[in-house]
Amino acid sequence: MLRIDNISKTFNPGTVNEKTALDRLSLHLAPGDFATIIGSNGAGKSTLLNAVAGSFFVDSGSITLGGEDVTFTPNHKRSRVIGRLFQDPLRGTAPSLTIEENLALAYLRSSEGTAPLSRIRKKDKEFFAQQLKLLGMGLEDRMRQPVGLLSGGQRQALTLLMATLVTPRLLLLDEHTAALDPATAEKVLELTRAIVAEHHITCLMVTHNMRQALKLGSRTLMMADGRIVLDVSGQERAGMTVDDLLRRFKTGTGHDLDNDRMLLSE
Amino acid sequence: MGSILLISQTALELGFQYALVAMALFLSYRILDIADLTTDGTFVLGAAVSVTVTAAGHPVLAIPAAMLAGACAGFVTAFLQTRMGVPSILAGIVTNTGLYTVNLMAMGWKSSASLMKKDTVFSLAKGLFAGTPLDGFWGQWHELILSAAVTILAGVLLYLFLGTRLGLSIRATGDNRDMVRASSVNPTFTITVGLCIANALTGLSGAVVGQYQRTVDMGSGTGIVVIGLACLIIGETVVGRRGMGRGVIAVMVGSIIYRFIYAIVFYTKVVPVDCLKLLTAAVVALAIAAPTIKAGAGLQKRKLAALRKGGR
Asked: If we measure between CA atoms, which residue out of A65, A263, A58 comes closest to residue A172?
């Protein structure tokens, strides 16, 4: 489904702030794969997601999605088949538009030729309400309210729904529950799991919670210095503990994992 | 008494005509969150094209021609800021400066142009009910009715447009560009469409004002962007800000109120008319600065309170 071949990205080349964020990184995800990514601060986890989403073009290497080379496809065109959630719950929705209008925009990804001058139909509204009901937050009764009035958790749940309203080929989750309170985070995570499982969405999720990284999904990747240093799945992953993971990280990179948030969260 | 009626009538006519500029700013400034400084030049462009085409004998054609010219000016500004990386305010100023020459050109390389006895949309409309009992009433009110009709029609169309998928994308662009991209829409496109429509509205305003006054000169657009903002702010204060429909109505109400204030100042001379622009600028600056001033005052109050406590 997703094939990344030898991609590199250097920020601010030729200056004192030069930083190689991705270093000849390769990764292949089969359809339905759900991979979690962990790694040190500045290991390039978010940069990897940005590269896949098309927030910038990579310096070298290629990215193929569903058999289609998207290396030079701009951001907004890739978003037709890639859904994405950020850590900041405010980034995924337009606050002054209503819930209904936000969903209508997300629904634009559905149909290639949706006429730009068409309006939201009654049928669409019913579909949106039915989808909102699945979130179990009562949002289906507030469809005409501006999204700015919702809580962070509600906005993140709405963003999740918007990203998957039209089933994407790939879902990118960048610590999307990290800014929420524990109960809400659990709820959003549960929704994520349910939606991803229901539609068999191929998924790439960055997290700082090591237990979560082992528990969720089917595969765990560890990143350091712009590379993937550890890639476990199947039997090997099933029996793994957080300590095993830390040990494997050290043997893989020669130093301890230094992600302050990650260590604090356990 | 008669003169008050006449003054009110003129204020209403001008209010509706200039409301289109405020409507343009509602779209560019309020919705897209872009301060579009092309506005001054676009207004003169609309008027110049309108007067020139009218002088050539096509007063009706002059209206869409002026709107098209305005849209082109908006496109240049949008192109500079979305494709060429020119900061948005500078893009407007650059286009505006270029428009000075274009406007001169549109007026036949003169700094003003006028329509002597040529037919305008207003004079054509006046003859509509000739020979019927309506003629007397229509003769007196046709300019107001026509101005109001054009502006209200533009407002209704804008309102309907903002409810379409493209309209929604434009509204979301001013709110959260990331989200627009995530919806597979290119913000470059929505900004371009938005600025083209906004400048077409400004051009329309210039076109109507030009034919109404039967003249246009290079200075007629100076400060119009600030006056438009003042109308927008006045209207939103009176009508409220929630919702697109309210916004479209607000610009008309605000513009009419502004023209009444203008008329009062003009006839009573409470302040010299020449001071009105300074006054308008001050009102706009204060209105936009209000949230910052409020926050600053709150902080000072807390600081003073903390000082007093600490001193004891």
From this structure: A65
Say whether B182 and A118 touch across the interface (CB within 8 A): no
Q: Do B180 and A77 touch (CB under 8 A)?
A: no
Cβ atoms within 10 Å of B29's Cβ, excluding its own? 21
Domain locations in chain A?
A: 1-81+169-183+200-266, 94-167
Of the residues A46, A76, A81, the best mutation for testing chain B's interface (the one with the most B CB atoms within 10 Å of its CB) is: A76
* Nearest C-alpha in B relative to A119: B164
- Residue that has been written with the tokens 């305003």 in this structure: B205
B107: its two tokens:
């007026």
Q: Which CATH architecture has domain B2-270?
A: Orthogonal Bundle (1.10)
pLDDT in tens, B248-291: 999 999 999 999 998 888 888 888 878 888 888 888 888 888 88
pTM for the whole structure: 0.89
Please report, for chain B, the start and end positions of each structural domain, with discontinuous segments joined by +.
Answer: 2-270, 277-312
Which region, left, alpha or beta, applies to residue B94 given φ > 0 means left and ψ of -120 to 50 means alpha?
A: alpha
Contact at CB, A94 and B179, closer than 8 angstroms: yes
Residues sharing a CB contact under 8 Å with residue A133, sequence separation 6 or more, in sequence order? A140
Question: Tell me: the pLDDT tens digits for B200-211?
Answer: 999 999 999 999
Cα separation, B192 vs B188, whole angstroms: 6
Q: Extract the tokens encoding B164.
A: 């379409």
| B145, B158 Cβ separation under 8 angstroms | no
CATH no. of A1-81+169-183+200-266: 3.40.50.300
Closest Cα partner for A198 from A234, A160, A143, A230?
A: A160
Can you say whether the dihedral through the CA atoms of B211, B213, B216, B221 is positive or negative? negative
Q: Is the pLDDT of residue A258 over 80?
A: no
A60 CB within 8 Å of a chain B CB: no
- B196-231 residues labelled b (16+ CB within 10 A) or e (exposed): bbbbbbbbbbbbbbbbbbbbbbbebbeebbbbbbbb
Min Cα distance B4 → chain A (Å) is 42
Alpha carbon B3 to chain centroid, angstroms: 28
Torsion-angle region of A82 (φ positive above 0: left; ψ -120 to 50: alpha; else: beta): beta
Q: What is the pLDDT of residue A266?
A: 46
Helices B39-55, B2-25: crossing angle, 10 deg rounding: 120
- Inter-axis angle of helices B224-239 and B2-25, to 10 degrees? 100
* Phi/psi-derived region of residue A23, left when phi > 0, alpha when psi is between -120 and 50, beta in every other case: beta
Separation CA B205–CA B49 (nearest Å): 12
